[in-house]
């Protein structure tokens, strides 16, 4: 694999194509003038103007209810306070207007057209130097086809994304991030990565760069799937954003419409029909999106702070790097959505559906996620500091290295969840359900786990100093190299557990059930063992103590039944 990839990446045809991506300037230019006066008059007379040129037109404050503006170019237009209730804006272009023509191709060419053009170049129908669009743009838009490496010929040009996939495949046998980074470095990919630890019969995900590629390494026998996040064009003084502040687009059809970097503060999008609409970099702060359909939408880098998105359809939408702080997402459906590196501090998402979502390094600090459906979601490195997750459903979710310090997870469901290396210090997990959860190397210092159901969980290498497990169900759990010193296990059920090098120093084991528990090198120094079940406790050493922390000698007993 290594030799084959090296030859592909250094093949003359391949290098020629990609070197031209740097040197070739965009050939498509934008018209110097703005909107068509004829088109504007048509709109004012008939309330309809399909495929019209209304770039930079002043439409502010107009009553355009029910207007048909399908496929119309509205880049840089002023629609401040405009009433577009029930209007037809399918395929409309409301992106920022670049003054100097740069990035204009990004706005003019559709994704389908770019992919068709890229395929024609690969097949030799169009010479690279004759392409009407720069090769750099085709790369940015991820338009190149992805041939199967196993079927690729030596003289076939391989897109860099595919080569990147294969480079990651070379790293399948290692899970250490530095090793994977070094391996990718051999292919000239010298950017930071994070890797989700593999689990049995699951995919491995490698995240490359803060806003770069995300690779899914499939299970044996399955094909790759890659998602490329292009670095967005940031408009500056050389561009005019489309203005929609305070506009009314409720019940409007925005299917496949584009609003890149538009100013949409306090816009009304309630009930909007906007599947696959693009709001990349748009400012939607304090916008109203209640009950709108924004499935498969592009909200990359968008500002949705304080937006109201209740009961909205957000399935498979991309909110990577977006700001949703203080937003209202109550009962919203974000099944399969991507919130990687997004800000959701203090968001209210009660009973929201985020099942199967991706939320790497996402900030949910102080969020209200009560009764939210978060099952099978990937929260690698996410932050839930002081978040309210009471009765939330996180079954089979991956919270590896997540921070849930002082979070409230009372009665939350976390069965079969991966919580390895996560921090629950000071958290409230009272009556939570963690059946079969992976808690290896997790931190539960000072956490309240009373009445928790944690049977068949793995607590190996976990730190639980001062944690409260009173009345908890801990049957058949594994405690290898676990530190439970000063824990309160009063009347907890640890029957059938496996204790290996477990530290119960000064723990309260009053009436704890260790029936059929196997133990090796268990430290019971100063542990309270009143009424303990399963220990060989001499009668004369028995003490009476109702709670941990009393200041008098405690029995030191070795051995378990």
Brief rundown of the structure:
The chain has 561 residues and is largely without helices or strands.
What string gives the helices and strands in order? HHHEHHHHHEEEEEEEE
Helix content: 10-25%
Unreliable spans are 1-33, 100-108, 147-177, 186-233, 537-561
**Integer average pLDDT:** 77
Number of strands: 9
Number of helices: 8
Helix and strand content put the structural class at little secondary structure
Shape: elongated
Alpha carbon gyration radius: 29 Å
Report, as a whole number of angstroms, the end-to-end distance: 55 Å
Could you characterize what this model shows?
This protein has 561 residues and is low in regular secondary structure. It contains eight helices and nine strands. It is elongated and about 90 Å long. The strands form three sheets. A four-stranded antiparallel beta sheet has the order 2-3-4-5, with helices on one face.
Compile the SSE list and pairings.
Layout: H1 2-10, H2 12-23, H3 37-46, E1 97-98, H4 104-108, H5 111-122, H6 135-140, H7 160-169, H8 177-185, E2 193-195, E3 204-208, E4 213-217, E5 225-228, E6 239-240, E7 478-480, E8 498-500, E9 518-520
Parallel strand pairs: 7-8, 8-9
Antiparallel strand pairs: 1-6, 2-3, 3-4, 4-5
Helix pairs in contact: 1-7
Question: Features of this protein?
Answer:
single chain, 561 residues, little secondary structure, three-stranded parallel sheet, 9 strands, 5% strand
């Amino acid at each position: 694999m290594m030799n084959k990839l090296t030859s592909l990446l250094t093949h003359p045809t391949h290098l020629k194509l990609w070197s031209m991506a740097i040197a070739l300037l965009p050939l498509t230019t934008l018209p110097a003038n703005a909107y068509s006066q004829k088109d504007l008059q048509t709109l004012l007379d008939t309330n309809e103007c399909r495929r019209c040129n209304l770039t930079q037109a002043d439409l502010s404050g107009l009553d355009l209810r029910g207007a048909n503006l399908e496929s119309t170019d509205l880049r840089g237009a002023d629609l401040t306070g405009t009433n577009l209730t029930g209007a037809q804006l399918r395929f409309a272009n409301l992106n920022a207007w670049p003054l100097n023509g740069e990035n204009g191709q990004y706005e003019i060419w559709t994704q389908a057209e770019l992919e068709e053009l890229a395929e024609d170049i690969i097949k030799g129908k169009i010479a690279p130097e004759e392409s009407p669009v720069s090769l750099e743009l085709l790369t940015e838009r991820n338009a190149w086809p992805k041939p199967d490496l196993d079927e690729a010929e030596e003289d076939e040009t391989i897109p860099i994304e595919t080569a990147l996939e294969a480079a990651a495949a070379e790293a399948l046998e290692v899970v250490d991030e530095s090793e994977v980074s070094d391996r990718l470095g051999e292919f000239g990919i010298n950017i930071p990565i994070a890797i989700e630890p593999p689990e049995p019969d699951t995919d491995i995900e490698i995240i490359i760069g803060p806003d770069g590629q995300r690779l899914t390494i499939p299970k044996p026998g399955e094909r790759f799937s890659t998602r490329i996040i292009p670095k967005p064009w940031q408009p500056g003084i050389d561009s005019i954003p489309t203005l929609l502040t305070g506009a009314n687009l409720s019940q409007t059809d925005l299917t496949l419409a584009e609003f890149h970097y538009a100013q949409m503060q306090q816009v009304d999008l309630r009930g909007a029909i906007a599947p696959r609409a693009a709001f990349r970099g748009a400012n939607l702060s304090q916008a109203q999106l209640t009950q709108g359909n924004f499935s498969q939408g592009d909200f990359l880098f968008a500002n949705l702070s304080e937006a109201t998105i209740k009961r909205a359809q957000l399935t498979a939408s991309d909110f990577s790097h977006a700001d949703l702080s203080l937003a209202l997402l109550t009962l919203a459906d974000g099944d399969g959505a991507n919130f990687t590196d997004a800000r959701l501090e203090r968001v209210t998402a009660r009973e929201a559906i985020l099942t199967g979502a991706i939320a790497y390094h996402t900030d949910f600090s102080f969020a209200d996620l009560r009764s939210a459906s978060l099952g099978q979601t990937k929260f690698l490195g996410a932050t839930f500091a002081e978040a309210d997750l009471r009765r939330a459903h996180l079954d089979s979710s991956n919270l590896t290295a997540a921070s849930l310090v002082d979070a409230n997870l009372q009665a939350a469901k976390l069965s079969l969840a991966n919580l390895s290396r996560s921090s629950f210090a000071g958290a409230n997990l009272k009556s939570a359900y963690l059946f079969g959860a992976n808690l290896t190397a997790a931190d539960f210092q000072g956490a309240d786990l009373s009445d928790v159901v944690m049977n068949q969980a793995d607590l190996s290498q976990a730190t639980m100093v001062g944690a409260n497990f009173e009345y908890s169900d801990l049957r058949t759990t594994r405690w290898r190299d676990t530190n439970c010193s000063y824990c309160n296990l009063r009347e907890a059920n640890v029957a059938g557990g496996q204790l290996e090098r477990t530290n119960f120093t000064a723990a309260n084991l009053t009436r704890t059930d260790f029936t059929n528990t196997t133990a090796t090198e268990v430290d019971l120094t100063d542990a309270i063992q009143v009424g303990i079940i399963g220990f060989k406790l001499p009668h004369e050493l028995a003490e009476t103590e109702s709670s941990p922390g009393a200041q008098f000698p405690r029995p030191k007993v070795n051995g378990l039944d």
